[in-house]
Amino acid sequence: MHGSTNPLGISSNSNKVPFHYYYSVKDLLGFFVFFFVFIVFTLKYGYVFIDAENFIPANALVTPTHIQPEWYFLFAYAILRSIPNKLGGVLALVLSVVSLFFFRISSKKLLFRGFNFSPVARLVFWSFIGNFFLLT
Questions:
Q1: What are the tens digits of pLDDT across the range 38-66?
Q2: Residues whose CB is less than 8 angstroms from the CB of residue 132 and which lie 6 or more positions away in sequence, other chains included
Q3: How far apart are CA 106 and CA 12, in angstroms?
Q4: Which of 63, 134, 127 lies closest to 100, judged by CA?
Q5: Domains detected in the chain
Q6: Is the pLDDT of residue 107 over 70?
């Protein structure tokens, strides 16, 4: 049998390499290099990645006018700002996240074949990514 992870049904017995030793050493080397660079940046250059506004003492009586969310919340902030009604904004934000789950449930035949065989699924996925970057 060709297996369930091979939707094209092509035999793939020709180009196989044993996993252990070569890939294990390669992965360990990559891990140690990443860990070394991470430790150097964390211990030596820790304050480089912190925003300068974090060093200003807080005033509990005044709300800052320059509040902005982090970059990964900008799409949600844009959705909330674009709808004047608070409840409508919250519903639009929830529907923007839940729409991914509805799309996955609606396409039962894609559970085993993947997005490469469905042009509609690819179109919806890339339109979601485009909207995310547009809102951000």
A1: 999 999 988 888 888 788 888 888 877 77
A2: 75
A3: 32
A4: 127
A5: 22-135 (1.10.287.980)
A6: no
Average pLDDT over residues 15-39: 88
Structure tokens at 128: 């979601």
Contacts of range 73-76, beta carbons closer than 8 Å, 24 or more positions apart: 74/135, 74/136, 75/131, 75/132, 75/135, 75/136
